[in-house]
Automatic annotation (TrEMBL):
Pathway: Amino-acid biosynthesis; L-serine biosynthesis; L-serine from 3-phospho-D-glycerate: step 2/3. GO terms for cellular component: cytoplasm. It comes from Nezara viridula (Southern green stink bug). One of its GO terms (biological process) is L-serine biosynthetic process. Belongs to the class-V pyridoxal-phosphate-dependent aminotransferase family. SerC subfamily. Gene3D superfamilies: Aspartate Aminotransferase, domain 1, Type I PLP-dependent aspartate aminotransferase-like (Major domain). It catalyses: 4-(phosphooxy)-L-threonine + 2-oxoglutarate = (R)-3-hydroxy-2-oxo-4-phosphooxybutanoate + L-glutamate; O-phospho-L-serine + 2-oxoglutarate = 3-phosphooxypyruvate + L-glutamate. This is Phosphoserine aminotransferase. InterPro entries: Aminotrans_V_dom, Aminotrans_V_PyrdxlP_BS, Pser_aminoTfrase, PyrdxlP-dep_Trfase, PyrdxlP-dep_Trfase_major, PyrdxlP-dep_Trfase_small.
Length: 358
């Protein structure tokens, strides 16, 4: 068996896409040069840029009144950009904090306006607390949440129903299920999990939210400028946009986001059921109903066995399984590119390890 990369990001990309990128690398469509050597003002790149948007538009049925833009600065750049582009309306915003990424986003936004926390404060992230605990401010410029917390493994099973523009960080579950884009003001994703290499972030924004950035907003994070200039205000991350476009095509060829969702359910259930059926040998703190289909963090009851688990997994070429340093333990990320066979191989390893060490 080849190496299986369960990393949380940068993460595995589809094999077919990697082979296509390799074939194209030295001579992109008979241009005689590589994408990484090509002017971002060339006709070839313009097509790459437009095709990626077109493909995504069709994958997610993005309505006409939404712009798709490609930026740099990673997810962390967008934490600031969201606030600088949207906070202007009322000067305050509501944040759901369900894990460390939304916590960081809220902290960053508080540099640019008043941040209200929707949920009771905690540093134990195991669920999306019940609606009865939510404190939403009707004056908020926007409501922000992280659809999938990559470290804590908490995924929203629903779209929060709110009366002001809704902003979602979908970095680690983008294109893993259909989404009704019309329910959102902004959806964004750093590419390096489910859709491409590090270096590019994509933003889908409803047009009426453009045009009101804070005066201090830098040009490269200004959604209005970037949308107007078709993500070509300055040199874009050309290679990242090209690979992302290839991943979008691949998702379409696989059967679209519906098929990604079907597989994500099956794959994550294989691992969660192994945890559930282990009689406590393995456990996860995340409550049923909020367990991420993309990132499965879990522990071994006898935590001294965890380094051994990682070592034996590595011997079988199953890598990048170490849990994030904030939570420890083990984390298996099951992004779109991870196959059923790879997931089954990991499940079998979990069962074999348990038998050998119980
Ligand atoms: N949001 C989520 C859900 C993440 O997993 C991450 C980490 N990759 C970020 C934001 C921050 O992204 P970046 O490291 O690109 O700044």
């Amino acid at each position: 068996m080849d190496t299986i990369n369960f990393g949380a990001g940068p993460a595995k990309l589809p094999r077919e896409v990697m082979c296509k990128v390799q074939r194209d690398f030295l001579n992109y469509e008979n241009s005689g040069i590589s994408v990484v050597e090509m002017s971002h003002r060339s006709a070839e790149y313009e097509k790459i840029n437009n095709d990626a948007q077109k493909e995504l538009r069709s994958l997610l049925n993005v309505p006409e009144n939404y712009k798709i833009i490609f930026l740099q600065g990673g997810g962390t750049g967008i934490f600031a950009a969201v606030a600088m582009n949207l906070m202007g309306r009322t000067g305050s915003a509501d944040y759901f904090v369900t894990g460390s990424w939304s916590s960081k986003a809220a902290k960053e936004a508080s540099k640019y306006g008043k941040v209200n926390l929707v949920l009771p404060k905690t540093d134990v992230y195991t669920e999306v607390p019940d609606k009865s605990t939510w404190k939403l401010d009707p004056q908020a410029s926007y409501v922000y949440y992280c659809a999938n917390e990559t470290i804590h493994g908490v995924e929203f099973p629903f779209i929060p129903d709110v009366d002001v523009p809704l902003v979602a960080d979908m970095s680690s579950n983008f294109l893993s299920r259909p989404v009704d884009v019309s329910k959102f003001g902004v959806i964004y994703a750093a590419a390096q999990k489910n859709i491409g290499p590090a270096g590019v972030t994509l933003v889908i924004i409803r047009e009426d939210l453009l045009g009101n950035p804070l005066p201090i907003c830098p040009l490269i994070l200004d959604f209005t400028v970037m949308a107007k200039d078709n993500s070509l205000h300055n040199t874009p991350p050309t290679f990242g946009v090209y690979v992302m476009g290839q991943v979008f095509k691949w998702v379409t060829e696989q059967g679209g986001v519906e098929e990604m969702e079907r597989l994500a359910k099956l794959k994550s259930e294989l691992i969660y059921s192994t945890i559930e059926n282990s009689g406590g040998f393995y456990f996860t703190s995340v409550k049923a109903g909020y367990r991420s289909r993309m990132n499965v963090p879990f522990r071994i009851k006898n935590s001294e066995l965890e380094p051994e688990f990682l070592k034996e997994a590595k011997n079988l070429k199953m890598i990048q399984l170490k849990g994030h340093r904030l939570v420890g333990g083990i984390r298996a990320s099951l992004y779109n590119a991870i196959t059923m066979e790879e997931t089954q191989a990991f499940k079998k390893f979990m069962e074999d390890f348990m038998k050998a060490h119980k």
